[in-house]
Amino acid sequence: MKALEKKSKMPVHLAMDHSDLEKSPGTRFKHYSPCFPVVILMDYFDIMDLTYEKDFVVLAQSHNFNYTAPNILFLGKTARAVNANLFYLLREAERILKSKKGKKEKIIIIENLPDTDEYATARERVHKASLI
């Protein structure tokens, strides 16, 4: 790495070759992302528009999800359960959608998770998955 001096006299290190990047987390391997678009459900009123003439799977945070759909997968009621189940259920949603025949658009809908520290990791993973 090469250090650059700024006016504040603090060194700034720039990666000058690929071997420097390999030491940084998240730069070596592509992380899992679903092969279908992921939409975060911010408002239950949007669900009809989101699902109209589409094949979809909903990942809901709890059984309190107030929409009846043939493919609702429950993430769990606690942040710990959601963190433990998220990737497994994203893959399960993909499996379900791949099995559907026809030319309808296929999407995965994830219920918006609570904005608390306990859910921060899961929210970040969901956000990254929705940026396909």
Can you put this structure into words, describing what you see?
The protein is of the alpha/beta class and 132 residues long. Helices cover 30% and strands 22% of the residues. The protein contains 4 helices and 6 strands; from the N terminus they run ββαβαββαβα. The strands form 2 sheets. Strands 3-6-4-5 form a 4-stranded parallel beta sheet. The protein has a two-stranded antiparallel sheet with strand order 1-2. A hairpin with a 5-residue loop joins strand 1 and strand 2. The protein is globular, with a radius of gyration of 20 Å. The two termini are 32 Å apart.
Strand order of the largest sheet: 3-6-4-5
- CATH fold-level assignment: Rossmann fold
Structural class: alpha/beta
Determine the CATH superfamily. Answer: Threonylcarbamoyl-AMP synthase, C-terminal domain
| Amount of beta strand | 15-25%
> What percent of the residues sit in helical stretches (DSSP H or I)?
25-40%
- Tally of extended strands? 6
Shape: globular
- What profile does the largest beta sheet have? 4 strands, parallel
Number of helices: 4
- Terminal-residue CA separation: 32 Å
What is the CATH architecture annotation? 3-Layer(aba) Sandwich
CATH class type = Alpha Beta
Rg from Cα? 20 Å
Q: Mean of residue pLDDT?
A: 80
Provide the descriptors you would attach to this structure in a database record:
single chain, about 130 residues, alpha/beta, Rossmann fold, 4-stranded parallel β-sheet, two-stranded antiparallel ribbon, 6 strands, globular
